[in-house]
Amino acid sequence: MKHYDKEFDDIRPFYDSEIPDAMKRIVNSEAFPLIASWVFPDMEFKEVIQLMLSFDNIEQFQKDVMIPVNEQVIKRSIDEFTYHGLERLDPKKQYLFVSNHRDIMLDACLLNYILLSNGHHTSQITFGANLMYPGVVTDIGKSNKMFKVERGGKMRDFYLSSLLLSKYIRNTIVDQKESVWIAQRNGRTKDGIDHTEPALINMFSLSKKCDKILSISELHIVPVSLSYEWECCDILKAIELYESRHERYVKKPGEDLNSILTGVLQPKGRVNFTFCPEISETELRKFENYTKKDYYREVAALIDRRINSAYMLTPNNYIAHDIRYGQRKYSKYYTKEQYNRFVEHAKKLDEYDVNEPNVLMDIFLGIYSNPINSQQK
Fold first, then answer.
1. CA dist 88 to 84, 85, 227, 263, Å?
2. What's the CA gap between 293 and 32, in Å, rounded?
3. DSSP H/E element including 222
4. CA distances from 373 to 134, 193, 311, 318, 332 (A)
5. Residues contacting 144, CB < 8 A, separation 6+
6. Cβ within 8 Å of residue 108, ≥6 positions away
7. What are φ and ψ of residue 108, in 5° steps?
C-alpha cells in the first residue's frame, strides 16, 4: 500500500510496515485463542501464532487469514453463497462500491472474499468510529484495509470529517488506485428498506466541487445489492426499532460486539451479492441542469433502483409479506414447511416483555417484507 498524506493518518488502514506489530498485539489479546480455534480448527495453536507472526504485509494477512475466516462463515452459517455481475468489473480498474448494508462485518468482508477469490484486488472498507476502539477488533479491521468514518458530532466537526472522508475516498480511488466499499447510508438497514442517502452523494462531491458530474463519474460507482435469506440480527434489529420509536435509542455496553458476533454465527440460509452496472457519466449528464440538491437526490435514486431491483427475494420475504398484509398472494413462492419455520423463528420475539407485541411483530415482518415493496416501486 502506498503512503498517504499525514492528514489521513487518523482514519487510514495500516501500512504494510505496521502489520508485524499489529500481529503481535492480536496474538497477545485475550480473544485470540478463541478466534484461532474458530478460524483454524485443524491447526495447533502454536502453528497459528507462528503463521500470524510471519505476516509483514496486508495481502498476506488477507489471503492467509481473511479467506479462511470467510470460508468458515460460509461453511458454518450459509447454506448457499452466490454472486453475480462480477464480469462487469475490470480487474485493472478501481471502483467505489456503494452497497446496501445488512451486517456490520460480513457485508464488506464477503465482498472482499469474492474479489480476492476471483483475481481482483481487494477493496478498502469503511468502518464506523464507534467500532474503532483500541483492541483486537480494530487491529484486525485495519489489517483488513478498514478505514475510519466519523459519525455525528457538532455541525462544523461533522462537515470537516465529511470533507476529510471525501478527500480520502477520492485520493484512494484516483491516486492510490484502490477500490473503496461504503454503505449507502449511515449504519445498517434495520427495517428492510434499502435507501441511499443523498447526503452521501453530497459527501462524495465535497472534494471536487468545481464539477458535479466529474466529481461522481471519476469515482466509478458500482452499486452492490446483497441479500440474506435470514436477516443478520433480525430479532435485535426489531427490538432496537421498537424501543427507538418514541425516544433516541442508546446502545448498551458491548452491544456492537454482540451484533458482530451474532451476525457471524447466526444461520443465514442463502446469501447473494450482485454487482450492478456502473453509474456512467452518460447517465449523470441527464441531471446536469438540476440543482445540486436535486442532482444528489437523483443519483441516490439511481443507485436505489439498481440495488432494489437486484435484491434476491427468498421464501422468507414472501411469507412475511403475506402474514403482514393478511393475504396469500405469494403462497406459490413458499412451502408449508418454510412457512412454519419462519413463524417458529418469529416466536423468539415472545421472549421480550413489551407493551405492544403486535407493533414489535409488525416491525419484524417489515424487515423481511419491505424488500418486496421496494422492488414493486
1. 9, 6, 19, 29
2. 47
3. strand 221-228
4. 41, 9, 12, 11, 18
5. 13, 58, 61, 62, 66, 109, 112, 125
6. 99, 123, 125, 126, 146, 181
7. -75, -35
* % of the chain beyond a pLDDT of 70: 97
Residue 129, SS3?
helix
- Looking at the DSSP bridge assignments, the partners of residue 228 are 271
For 125-172, write each residue's pLDDT tens digit: 998 877 767 788 899 999 999 999 987 778 888 899 999 999 999 999
Between β-strands 78-84 and 269-275, what pairing exists: parallel, antiparallel or unpaired? parallel
Cα 17 to chain centroid, rounded: 27
HEC-encoded secondary structure of 166-221: HHHHHHHHHHCCCCEEEECCCCCCCCCCCCCCHHHHHHHHHHHCCCHHHHHHCCCE
Pair 269, 314: CB distance under 8 Å? yes
Grid cell locating 187:
449504519
Q: Is 149 exposed, middle or buried (0-12, 13-18, 19+ CB in 10 A)?
A: buried
Nearest residue to 257 via CA among 229, 236, 231: 236
Cβ pair 304, 98 in contact under 8 A: no
Q: What pLDDT digit, counting tens, does each position of 104-137 carry?
A: 889 999 999 999 999 999 999 998 877 767 788 8
List % helix, strand, coil for the chain (3-state, nearest 5).
55, 10, 35
Region of poorest pLDDT, from 67-76, 97-106, 253-262:
253-262
Number of Cβ within a 10 Å radius of residue 204 = 22
pTM score, two decimals?
0.95
Domains of the chain as residue ranges with CATH = 6-232+268-312 (3.40.1130), 316-376 (no CATH)
Residue 326 region by backbone torsions, left for phi larger than 0, else alpha for psi between -120 and 50, else beta: left
Whole-angstrom distance, CA of residue 73 vs CA of residue 230:
14
119: left (phi over 0), alpha (psi -120 to 50) or beta: left
Quote the CA–CA distance of 9 and 1 in Å, as a whole number: 14
Angle, CA 248 vertex, CA 242 and CA 254 arms, to 5°: 80
- Of the candidates 176, 178, 149, the residue with the CA atom closest to the CA atom of residue 162: 149
